[in-house]
Amino acid sequence: MVNSQIDLEETKRRIAIGEKTIKLTKAEKQKLKEVEKMQAKKLALEEKEQLKKAKEKQKSQKGTIDIYQERKLNTTNKKFVPSRSKSN
């Protein structure tokens, strides 16, 4: 509950800054930019780690296909080619 209230106040403040109802000093503007850059870098690192984990998981799953499943895939994925019987 407390975090949502803090987030709500932060959002209201950002809206007020965007609408120029609150004047910020240069130092405050620089601090806001630095904080936003830090958050962006943090999010980028998190996304990169998630992608790494997903790739590793995919690689590990790729190598663990059972022979039975592999045979099943091969039999079901083959294209049906009808053959004509020549009775001339």
Q: Helix fraction? A: over 70%
Low-confidence stretches: none
Tell me the number of helical segments per DSSP (H or I, 4 or more residues long): 3
What gyration radius follows from the Cα positions, in whole Å? Answer: 29 Å
Beta-strand level of the residues, as a percent range? under 5%
Shape summary: elongated
Query: Which structural class is indicated by helix and strand composition?
Result: mainly alpha
What does the average pLDDT come to?
Answer: 79
Q: What is the chain-wise order of helices and strands?
A: HHH
* Strand segment count: 0
Biggest β-sheet, characterized?
none
First-last Cα distance: 85 Å
Task: Walk me through this protein's architecture.
- Keywords: Coiled coil.
- The protein is mainly alpha-helical and 88 residues long.
- The protein has a domain at 26-60.
- It has three helices and no strands.
- It has helices at residues 2-18, 26-63, 67-77.
- The longest helix is centred in the middle third of the chain and has 38 residues, at 26-63.
- The protein is elongated, with a radius of gyration of 29 Å.
- The N and C termini lie far apart (85 Å).
